[in-house]
Structures are given as C-alpha cells and as structure tokens.
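Hi all, posting the design record for the shared folder.

TITLE: backbone redesign
STEP: 1 of 1
STRUCTURE INPUT:
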C-alpha cells in the first residue's frame, strides 16, 4: 500500500502539476479554516461510510455542504449507511482518522470502495485533498485529479446534493 511519500513520488513521476502545502495536523473541516486564503481552490469534506451489507463508500463534497446521511443514502441507492469504523480506514486504505481523501483510494486495489464526488468540487478549478496524511494538503486542478483517478482505475460518480442524483460517471 502507498504511503504519502510514495503517493507524492507517483505524482512527480507522472508529471502531475500540483502544489504541496505542509501544515499542522488537521482532523476536521473546522481545523482547516485557518488555511483559507493561504491554500487556493475548493476545500473538501470526506466521508468514509459503510452499509449493513459491508459495502464501502467515500463521499467527497465541498466543505460547507450539509450531508444528510439518510437522504443521500436513499438518493444514491447506498442502503443503510453509517460512518465506517477506524479499523476499516487502516485495513482498506492504510490511513488514520483525519486523513480520509480520494487519494487513499489508490490503496484500494480491489476497488471495493465506491467513490462519489460532489458536483461543486467537480466544477471547481482547483481541489484540495490530503495525500494519506493530515499534515499535508495537495492542491491540483480538478481536471488533473479526475485524470489521476481514472489512470489508476478508479470509478468516479459525480453527484448533485441539490438534485440528489448521479450526474455522470467516469472510469471503469
């Protein structure tokens, strides 16, 4: 499984354009507020979820989006979902709490985790995610982010919280 250093090397080796921002450990969206204005682009909230049938989901949305788990699970057809326990973060994604991001999906070699990206982030010029640790934030264009995910065999469901639908799907 990739470490954050190996992930950053992957970005460098494949000539992705990105900015690396080092900072104090961030565990919540509120923790990151002091970085606004210092790090460009849209900031995210990332929810690692599990349903009763042991299916896993990562939902990445704009930091101020209010996610109602019951409503989103019904509209996206996810079943009865709740936050996945910490041990699943370690076992499936090789990360700790506070480090959840789509980049960790590169450690999901079996593609067992379904990824949903909110259209507000998808339509942003730049997005920000932790590279498997919460002491660094990677800023990259959303176009490069989508390209990275597709090149690493990840499916991305673009969804709208407003219309409560999947708008488009990229990848396998």
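Okay, here is what came back for every position:
SEQUENCE:
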């Amino acid at each position: 499984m990739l470490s954050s250093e190996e992930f950053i090397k992957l970005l460098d080796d494949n000539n992705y354009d990105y900015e690396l921002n080092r900072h104090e450990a961030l565990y919540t969206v509120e923790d990151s507020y002091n970085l606004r204005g210092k790090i460009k682009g849209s900031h995210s909230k990332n929810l690692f979820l599990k349903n009763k049938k042991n299916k896993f989901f990562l939902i990445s949305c704009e930091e101020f989006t209010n996610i109602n788990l019951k409503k989103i699970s019904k509209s996206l057809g996810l079943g009865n979902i709740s936050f996945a326990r910490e041990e699943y973060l370690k076992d499936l994604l090789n990360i700790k709490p506070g480090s959840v991001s789509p980049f960790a999906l590169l450690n999901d070699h079996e593609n067992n985790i379904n990824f949903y990206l909110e259209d507000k982030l998808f339509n942003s010029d730049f997005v920000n995610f932790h590279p498997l640790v919460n002491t660094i934030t990677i800023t990259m264009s959303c176009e490069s982010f989508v390209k990275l995910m597709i090149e690493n065999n990840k499916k991305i469901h673009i969804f709208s919280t407003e219309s409560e639908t999947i708008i488009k799907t990229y990848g396998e």
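COMMENT: The chain has a mean pLDDT of 91.
Let me know if anyone wants the other runs.
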